[in-house]
Design brief:
The protein is mainly β. It is built from no helices and 11 strands. Strands 2, 4, 5, 6, 9, 10 and 11 form a 7-stranded mixed beta sheet that branches. A 4-stranded antiparallel beta sheet has the order 1-3-8-7, with no helix packed on it. It is elongated, with a radius of gyration of 15 Å.
């Protein structure tokens, strides 16, 4: 089981910035992509930013131009600028990939791991 730990959440005023981090406790074999999702009260969780193993990024329209996702060998980051009240939510990191399992490590198995989330609250 891979452990993901988000950090960097908190309270900020409208127009402010925060940087979230997602620390991965171990190596991720066959990593496909890492994602940030968020879930506001009473709403479904949705992906807002993703980055592939090769570094290609994608953003939801709601955060495009304001948020930047990046990663290094052990962490994924989400730089959030020009925050507004609509960004108030719990933020989660997620990793997806394929690992080889079985007696001879020749059977591909997809994996998905989620962190516990970190709260971001934006107020005027």
């Amino acid at each position: 089981q891979v452990q993901l730990v988000e950090s960097g959440g908190g309270s900020v005023q409208t127009g402010g910035s925060l940087t979230l981090s997602c620390t991965v406790a171990q190596n991720l074999p066959g990593l496909n992509r890492m994602e940030w999702s968020r879930q506001a009260a009473g709403r479904q969780r949705s992906v807002i930013a993703s980055i592939t193993a090769g570094g290609s990024t994608n953003y939801a329209d709601s955060v495009k131009g304001r948020f930047t996702v990046s990663k290094d060998t052990t962490k994924m980051y989400l730089q959030m600028n020009r925050l507004n009240e609509g960004d108030t939510a719990s933020y989660y990191c997620h990793v997806n990939g394929v690992e080889f399992v079985g007696r001879n490590y020749d059977r591909p198995q997809e994996y998905d791991y989620w962190g516990q989330g970190t709260q971001v609250t934006v107020s005027s």
